Amino acid sequence: MAPTTSDPARPDEPAAPYGTGPASPRPAGRVRIHHLAQAKERGEKFAMLTAYEQYTAQIFDEAGIEVLLVGDSAANNVYGHATSLPVTVDEMISLVRAVATSAKRALVVADLPFGSYEVSSEQAVATGVRFLKEGLAHAVKMEGGAYYADTVRAMVQAGVPVMAHIGFTPQSEHALGGYRVQGRGEDAERLIEDARALESAGAFCVLMEMVPAATAAAVDAALTVPTIGIGAGNATTGQVLVWQDMAGLRGGEGVRVAKFVKKYADLRTILLDAARAYREDVRSGQFPGPEHSF
């Protein structure tokens, strides 16, 4: 099932075209799948960030970020795990609901965590339905290539919109031998075939992670649906980053930031300075002062 290019207007969500140029405004209502398709058709770009709770969801939504991903990267960035593998569906659903109820305009996409879709198409459909019913997500993202085309097809037929994820797939890091760039040389054709199979199965978008820019451009050219890149060059329709990387919250001794990350702020230093100042005010007796007391 290909993405539609129109969507009936609702009283609270007036239908609107995506825009007419790189700086065009967002739709008047909720960003929908067909708005992303329109962006690719017009040669426009859109932005995607992760979010895991209400405040970042509200802030990024207000900033105009078109897509919010409640990623299984919550395992690393919320729950403190070393990889994305341990996070569970139940842990994810609470985060997805917080983001979905806080973002008024952005399209909210939920990651299917490791172990929640690999057994069968039936398992994948059941998990996807939970994310839409309990988490209030608008779509889900799942990792894997052409092997999962039938799974994607079953989910889309069940009414669960699917964003595909190819290239480096973090849930398969042990099978892939660690964090390694995918799609180099002759392997580029495999990625193109994976992307085409997933598009044919009904995926409304294909995300590529840690893929050479030339390969990502070839994948994008081979598809009619939009693509999203993370470490995949600038030819994709959208770009995504983990917000803690983008805003400079991750850091500290021994923490390495990926090459593809651009840091737009240094929140770690700001929060560290604020916490130190607060501690000193408490220790010195300056806080709370008369103006903070009843």
UniProtKB/TrEMBL annotation:
Superkingdom of origin: Bacteria
Entry's localization field: Cytoplasm
Pfam families per record: Pantoate_transf (PF02548)
Positions that bind 3-methyl-2-oxobutanoate: D72, S73, D111, K141
Chief localization: cytoplasm
Catalysis performed (reactions): (6R)-5,10-methylene-5,6,7,8-tetrahydrofolate + 3-methyl-2-oxobutanoate + H2O = 2-dehydropantoate + (6S)-5,6,7,8-tetrahydrofolate
Cofactor notes: Binds 1 Mg(2+) ion per subunit.
Entry keyword Magnesium: yes
Alphabetized NCBIfam families for the sequence: panB, PRK00311.1
Subunit structure: Homodecamer; pentamer of dimers.
Primary role: Catalyzes the reversible reaction in which hydroxymethyl group from 5,10-methylenetetrahydrofolate is transferred onto alpha-ketoisovalerate to form ketopantoate.
Name of the protein: 3-methyl-2-oxobutanoate hydroxymethyltransferase
Classification of source organism: Bacteria, Bacillati, Actinomycetota, Actinomycetes, Micrococcales
